[in-house]
Amino acid sequence: MQAVQSPIIPVVGELIKNHPRTISLGQGVVHYGPPKEAFDQLSQFLAEPENHKYKLVQGIPPLLEILKAKLESENRIQLGEANALIVTAGGNMAFMNAVLAITDPGDEVILQTPYYFNHEMAVVMAGCRPVLVSTDENYQLRPEAIRQAITSRTRAVVTISPNNPTGAVYPEQALREVNALCRDRGVFHIHDEAYEYFTYDDARHFSPASIPDSAPHTISLFSLSKAFGFASWRIGYMVIPERLLVSVKKIQDTILICAPVISQFAAVGALKAGRAYCQSQMASIIEVRKLFLKELESLKTFCTIPAASGAFYFLLRLRTDWKPMDLVERLIRDFRVAVIPGTTFGLETGCCLRVAYGALREETAREGIGRLVRGLKTLIKA
Ligand SMILES: Cc1ncc(COP(=O)(O)O)c(C=O)c1O
After folding, report:
1. What is the mean pLDDT of the chain?
2. CA distance to 223, 333, 348, per residue, from 325 (Å)
3. Which of 160, 205, 273, 306 could be 37's S-S partner, Cβ–Cβ 3.0 to 4.6 Å?
4. 380: nearest Cα among 325, 299, 313
């Protein structure tokens, strides 16, 4: 465990706690909770004493059924003999399940940088080596660089779209290219779709597992945390090649047994409310996003914001000698606004800051971005 990085987010959290009235543009969560339909299921859960016992490792049948329908109609992922569906305690657990199922210690897993830190940590925890391939100046995939990074020890290529921490949405063509590359080289394509509902403007979400014949080498990870305001309920799910089912069940049985059954009941309700629920919450996120873009525009003499048409993040690239964590500390101390340093996501050079805009209502968001812009202008121009 000493080889595993400590995530910086709790450190920033501590700084926020010590500086009351700080507005956090750090948290990767949404401002809303689950739909009413989720809570409606709870009485059903409580009415049946058997529900307090362990349930199937793979998930409760009504949840598997509604997820199957959602995957087929929204993601165009056909479930059949070649693949399997498993309910997990969130997307992070789904990723850990995947890594443990497909690797031996010493194997390599290709991550794109900037990476989602828990992915990097999971790979190291499994005794494997994260091989980092940088995205381009717009935080887009570089399939040729990925191809060159594949060795005889590579077990998987990981992609996330819409992306945390960059907000980039990968075009269908790029994901198809990576998926085909994985097929040709005999490695898995692990694709994290936690932010599938969060796209803006012309950006379109695409699931690589919808590609015909992709099932044997594609692992798709999903989460209810963002779309349904479900972060603390801990429900995610994964679509895996059928031949991994026994392994993933062994792993999940050992670590978890089954995802909390009360949360699985709630998830059935959330899925009944469906995508429309998330869409009904998106209007305010879209407004905050517009406001942030407008305010950040005034930093353009020293700050680049690559296009980010998904999730709820911007990853600012600042032309300055400031070390990102020093800047984050000063922004909290002097301007009472918190963001996350790019170093958290494996960016060792330059000065990048991740700004999250999903968690705040408009008024607080306005005050928060105002503080950030003032802070950056003062500190960087000083
Ligand atoms: C890309 C990505 N995957 C997975 C997760 C974790 O999701 P869950 O709460 O379902 O474990 C996050 C959370 O921020 C994320 O950004």
Report:
1. 96
2. 29, 12, 11
3. 273
4. 299
Is the beta carbon of 346 within 6 A of some atom in ligand 1?
no
Which atom number of ligand 1 is nearest to the Cα of residue 28? 14
- Centroid of ligand 1 to alpha carbon of 81 (angstroms): 28
Cβ distance 123 to 113 under 8 Å? no
Q: Kindly report the pTM of this predicted structure.
A: 0.97
∠ Cα 348 136 168 (to 5°): 95
| Lookup: tokens for 274 | 């469906």
pLDDT band at 9 (very low <50, low <70, confident <90, very high): confident
Residue nearest to atom 4 of ligand 1 (CA): 91
Residue of 96, 164, 233, 264 to mutate, ligand 1, most atoms within 8 A of C-beta: 164
Q: Residue 313: CB within 6 Å of ligand 1?
A: no
Indicate the helix (H) or strand (E) that contains 370. Answer: helix 362-381
CA of 27 to the centre of ligand 1 (A): 12
CB 112 near ligand 1, within 6 Å? no
Binding site membership of 87 for ligand 1 (Cβ less than 6 Å): no
Neighbours of 4 (CB within 10 A): 12
| C-alpha closest to that of 309 among 147, 211, 195 | 195
Beta-carbon contacts of 285 under 8 Å, excluding residues fewer than 6 positions away, are 30, 31, 198, 312, 357, 358
- Classify residue 111 by its DSSP letter: E
**Contact indicator for 355, 24 with CB cutoff of 8 Å:** no
The phi, psi pair for 243, rounded to 5°, reads -70, -10
- The answer to whether the CB of 160 is under 6 A from ligand 1 is yes
Q: Is 92 in the pocket of ligand 1 (CB under 6 A)?
A: yes
Residue type, 201: D
pLDDT band at 382 (very low <50, low <70, confident <90, very high): low
CA-proximal residue: ligand 1, atom 2 (nearest): 194
Q: What is the pLDDT of residues 35-73, one digit of tens each?
A: 999 999 999 999 999 999 999 999 999 999 999 999 999
Q: What is the DSSP letter of 117?
A: H
- Please give the structure tokens belonging to residue 58: 């793979």
